[in-house]
Amino acid sequence: MTLLFWVFSVFGLVPEQDTVSLEQVEVYAPALDRFAQGQKLINFESKVLESYSARSLAELLQEQSPVFIRQYGAGMLASPSFRGTSAGHTAIFWNGLPINSPSLGQSDLSILPLEAIDQAQLHFGSSGALFGNEAIGGSLHLNSKTDFGKGFEGKIAQTVGSFGLFNTALSGGFSSNKFSSKTRVYRQFALNDFSFRDISRPGSPEVNEDHAQTEQRGMVQDLAWNISDKSQLKAAFWWNKAEREIQPVMGSNTVDHQSDESFRAVLDYFRFGTGSVWNLKAGWVQDKMIFNESLNETRQFFAATDWDFAKGNSWQFKAGLRATFIQGDLSTYSTTDQRVELYQSGRWTASEDLSLSLNLRQFAYLDNLVPFLPGIGGDWKFWDSDSQQLLLKASVGKGFKIPTLNDQFWSPGGNPNLLPEESVSGEIGLNWLKKGGFSWDQSLTYYRMQVDNWIIWLPQGSVWSPENIREVQNQGIEYQGKANWKIGGIKWDLGLSYTFSEALDLTSEPANPRQLPYTPKHQANGNLSAEYAGVVLNLGSFFVGQRAIGTGNARILDSYQIWNAGLQFSDLKWGNTRFPLSFQVLNLLDKDYQVLYLRAMPGRSYQFNLTIHL
Fold first, then answer.
1. How far is CA 140 from the centre of its chain?
2. What does the alpha-carbon distance between residue 213 and residue 243 come to, in Å, rounded to a whole number?
3. Whose C-alpha in 30, 241, 344, 592 is 20 to 30 A from the C-alpha of 371?
4. φ, ψ for residue 462 (rounded to 5)?
5. Is 111 helix (H, G, I), strand (E, B) or coil?
6. What is each CA distance from 120 to 41, 242, 335, 613, in whole angstroms?
7. Measuring CA to CA, how many Å separate 418 from each of 136, 414, 415, 421?
8. What are the CA-CA distances from residue 583 to residues 170, 268, 562 (Å)?
């Protein structure tokens, strides 16, 4: 069925090749939500990304979304948890290129700086049919944005703050109607010599962290050419290197060091027709990690092609093929892997108020066929008036995650007979938009998910080895709300989020299932800002509920709530030069808390930011 659908899509409906003018068009980027009917999405606006540019991607997601971030300390490993799933159940893309490590099956958000991207979007729920491997809990999409016809542009940004924070970023570019180039370089440094209460010692004395220094440097180059009215070429390169002293757990005197270096490159060719785009993509991702003296390196090469086109006013299709070639040279093994996936999507716009999508994917690796993955969803706007709008969203689909290279080949303990993890999930949501002087956009989503063949490492005598033994059931409710209004000359913006997440391990005690470790049932965040004459005052807070430290829920880690505040002067100018200033106080109430047990987190800190737009 998959092959027939693909053949029909590509060869039965080949689009016409009429000329399309690109003079007023930005670099082409396919809309990620075109075939994601019924699924929950969050797009971060550019002003939100700019306000977090001197901070981390992990902090952005923790404070501005329902995603829980597992942090091992300030500047240390940070991994996302969508809807109670693990970090390996989140697919992460950069300009359409999968960048999760094939050896670990995940990405470290602490070494994905926001200075390197222009756009970020979250997709929630199983999207295996739409995005492929690892998209069980959700997916994160990071993108560059390149414009034409803007001439010369430049920016200098400097941040200084508590605990030795010193971040610098430079960017500059030029664009005409035919060519666009943008270069970014950055350096981020933090001594992280904060004080904390060491609960591992008698009397819980206050001590200073003395082994958590981090430094990160990188460069991003974006290029784009309008070759003709019907074709476009886009290239992007990203080099990033992070050096970290690994913050020890309380009570430990370890002095581990870790170096992470990544090089990513992607090349896209687009051919435009009438309501159609043909894309050829090639990508390269190389990751090198040195932990103390142990070297681990992986290289991935991607080659893909797809058609994205419309048939009439009601139908849209996309069909493609992607091949991945992997070389892993780890400290205990070397191996190769080849992966091929065939994917197809269709969308039917039945009316202005109703649209349906169908996504199909077949994945093969190491001579194994992952079960065929379908996904279907719909959006129904059943009420639309001058003052309000109601939209019903629903979707159901399958997801999967193939075993990582470490799962299969780590020596000793790797298990080459592991099965891929599989999920079936569904969600239903209601969006309510109130229009007018007081605008209020709200959504309430219920989701349910079953994950089988969950891989877990267990001791086999003196050796740990992975097995497919865990069955997990996830369900929960997510609320998301945004409001804005104006009183006098003051513009107000309010954002609220609450999540109830139940992630139960059905394997050990089916009659009395327990919540997965480090998975909070309750999580919430809120942000309020007031703007007057270019001066913005904001107050934000996020709450994380209790978490079990290990299996069995015998030990519980306390909940915590953190408050942040900021003041920004956004309209400061000198001639044609803008130089916005901002000041932030993080952990305003100096809360003593731990995200993970015995992992110290910093108390109250201050940041001063200056950006000069040339």
1. 3
2. 8
3. 30
4. -95, 0
5. helix
6. 11, 22, 33, 22
7. 18, 9, 6, 9
8. 20, 40, 17
Percent of the chain that is helix, strand, coil (3-state, to 5): 5, 60, 35
What is the DSSP secondary-structure string of 189-251?
EE----EEE-TTSTT--EEE--S--EEEEEEEEEEEEEEETTEEEEEEEEEEEEEEEPPPPTT
Cβ partners under 8 Å of residue 332, min gap 6: 410, 411, 412
Tell me the C-alpha distance between 393 and 382, whole Å: 11
CA–chain centroid gap for 266, Å, is: 18
Single out the residue of 393, 384, 471 nearest to residue 426, CA to CA.
393
Rounded CA-CA distance 98/281 in Å is: 12
Q: Which amino acid is at 508?
A: S
Spatial separation of the C-alpha atoms in residues 594 and 578, rounded to whole Å: 39
**Strand pairing of 556-557 and 547-548?**
antiparallel
Element (H, E) at 186: strand 179-190
Q: What is the largest CA-CA distance in the chain?
A: 77
Rounded distance between C-alpha atoms, residue 156 and residue 175, angstroms: 18
Give CA–CA dist 141/43, Å, rounded. Answer: 10
Token pair 């997801």 in the structure block, residue: 399
How does pLDDT run across 546-580, given as a tens digit for each residue? Answer: 999 977 667 899 999 999 999 999 989 998 899 99
| Residue-by-residue DSSP string for 311-332 | ETTTEEEEEEEEEEEEEEE-SS
Q: What six digits make up the tokens of 413?
A: 């303990």
Identify which of 88, 90, 83 has the alpha carbon closest to the alpha carbon of residue 501: 83
Please give the helix or strand (H or E) that residue 407 lies within, else none: helix 405-409
Q: In Å, what is the CA distance from 92 to each residue of 88, 121, 181, 292?
A: 10, 10, 25, 27
Q: Does domain 2-613 have CATH number 2.40.170.20?
A: yes
> What pTM does this model have?
0.93
Q: How far is CA 577 from the centre of its chain?
A: 33
Q: Give the Cα separation of 14 and 278 in Å (integer).
A: 10
pLDDT of the residue at 479 = 97
Q: In one letter, which amino acid is 534?
A: G
Q: How many CA atoms lie within 13 A of 434 on its CB side?
A: 10
Residue with tokens 């191996």: 335
Q: What is the pLDDT of residues 419-453, one digit of tens each?
A: 999 999 999 999 999 999 999 999 999 999 999 99
Provide Rg for the chain, Cα atoms: 24
Cα separation, 178 vs 172, in Å, equals 18
Instruction: Check: CB of residue 91 under 8 Å from CB of residue 106.
Output: no
